[in-house]
């Protein structure tokens, strides 16, 4: 089946229960509650393992992202890079009622050594970034090691059950963006909502889980000490929120938050219409506050916080028309 062009693609979120999760994500996405379990994450764009996002609009409604990447990768990505045939990025929203484990993710080389892929699959490392949507006064993020902490001090604290004392932490505020290269020890604290962009990977190695018992099993969750120590970058000291690079102030504020080899991230604060999308590149639009319309040659899409819309490479430009003030994240797929 030859596909020359795609219009904007919308996807159904995948709701993921977690021992540390909250109860806000069904409402955030405008979906009826289908589980009494706490929901920690929604995977809103995924081509990872069996977790494949499903299109919910237009001609290709019911198809998965994996199917579209199989039959028309060039139409989706253009000159952007795939991850061994998969869509290279995984996008999520998180809601934390309790802190996540202290954890670390491997880089690509470590991932292939520690978790060799099954035939037809892919094993990637996990560089990620967060944008804070909601926080409380006592909310914490743990990102990187405190200055001067070496491996010996880190392992000693791990044995004593006081690992958090070696971690750099701060009180995040709405709008903070934190970039976490693979190998950075980190944890997301309680009472936060955030957006996450990462490589297409689900490899997480837990170092410490706050002596927590999983209510679903009655047992502590497994730790991965050997793998974690292998993957930890002990030169990665305190990680602070990024300082945005402002490209435009008026009428719309355009900020570059991140540029690295795996993804880019912009924040658009809109009060007037703005053109988005780049011919022959794939972009993803993620409204996080307010609502508006996305106009293209293919359709007009009503968009609001909690939605995501992929702009495939063959689609070209689109125009966002905000209804009042609107904040949108623009995810750049690597070229």
SSE map:
Elements: E1 9-12, E2 14-22, H1 25-28, E3 39-45, E4 47-48, E5 51-52, E6 54-55, H2 65-71, H3 73-77, E7 89-96, E8 102-104, H4 108-114, E9 128-135, E10 141-145, H5 151-160, E11 167-170, E12 177-180, E13 186-188, E14 192-199, E15 205-208, H6 225-231, E16 245-248, E17 253-259, E18 264-270, E19 274-276, E20 283-289, E21 291-295, E22 300-304, E23 309-311, E24 318-322, E25 326-332
Antiparallel strand pairs: 1-6, 1-23, 2-3, 3-7, 4-5, 7-14, 8-15, 9-12, 9-14, 10-11, 10-13, 16-17, 17-18, 18-25, 19-24, 20-23, 20-25, 21-22, 21-24
Keywords: Isomerase, Metal-binding, Zinc
GO biological process, one term: carbohydrate metabolic process
Protein name: Phosphomannose isomerase type I catalytic domain-containing protein
Question: Your description of this structure?
Answer:
The structure is a single chain. The chain has 335 residues and is mostly beta strands. The chain has two domains: 9-231, Jelly Rolls (Sandwich), CATH 2.60.120; 245-332, Jelly Rolls (Sandwich). The chain is 12% helix and 38% strand. The chain has six helices and 25 strands. The chain has helices at 25-28, 65-71, 73-77, 108-114, 151-160, 225-231; strands at residues 9-12, 14-22, 39-45, 47-48, 51-52, 54-55, 89-96, 102-104, 128-135, 141-145, 167-170, 177-180, 186-188, 192-199, 205-208, 245-248, 253-259, 264-270, 274-276, 283-289, 291-295, 300-304, 309-311, 318-322, 326-332. The strands form six sheets. An eight-stranded antiparallel sheet has the order 6-1-23-20-25-18-17-16, with no helix packed on it. Strand 16 and strand 17 (253-259) form a beta hairpin. The two termini are 26 Å apart. The mean pLDDT is 95.
């Amino acid at each position: 089946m030859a596909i020359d062009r795609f219009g904007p693609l919308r996807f159904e979120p995948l709701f993921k229960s977690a021992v540390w999760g909250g109860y806000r994500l069904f409402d955030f996405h405008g979906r009826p509650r289908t589980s009494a379990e706490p929901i920690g994450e929604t995977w809103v764009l995924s081509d990872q393992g069996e977790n494949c996002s499903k299109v919910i609009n237009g001609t290709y409604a019911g198809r998965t992202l994996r199917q579209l990447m199989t039959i028309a990768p060039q139409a989706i990505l253009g000159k952007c890079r795939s991850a061994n045939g998969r869509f290279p990025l995984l996008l999520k929203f998180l809601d934390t009622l309790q802190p996540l484990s202290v954890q670390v993710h491997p880089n690509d080389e470590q991932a292939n050594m520690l978790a060799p892929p099954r035939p037809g699959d892919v094993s990637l490392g996990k560089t990620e970034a967060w944008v804070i949507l909601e926080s409380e006064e006592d909310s914490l993020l743990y990102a990187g090691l405190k200055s001067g902490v070496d491996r010996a001090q880190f392992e000693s604290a791990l044995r004593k059950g006081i690992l958090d004392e070696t971690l750099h932490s701060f009180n995040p505020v709405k709008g903070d963006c934190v970039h976490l290269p693979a190998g950075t020890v980190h944890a997301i604290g309680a009472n936060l909502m955030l957006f996450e962009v990462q490589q297409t990977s689900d490899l997480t190695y837990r170092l410490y889980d706050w002596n927590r018992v999983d209510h679903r099993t009655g047992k502590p969750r497994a730790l991965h000490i050997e793998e974690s120590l292998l993957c930890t970058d002990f030169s990665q000291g305190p990680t602070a929120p990024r300082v945005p690079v402002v490209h435009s102030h008026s009428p719309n504020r355009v900020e570059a938050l991140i540029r690295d080899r795996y993804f880019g991230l912009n924040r658009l604060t809109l009060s007037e219409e703005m053109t988005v999308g780049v011919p022959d590149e794939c972009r993803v639009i993620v409204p996080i506050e307010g609502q508006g319309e996305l106009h293209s040659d293919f359709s007009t899409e009503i968009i609001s916080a909690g939605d995501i819309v992929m702009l495939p490479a063959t689609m070209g430009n689109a125009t966002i028309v905000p209804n009042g003030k609107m904040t949108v994240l623009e995810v750049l797929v690597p070229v």
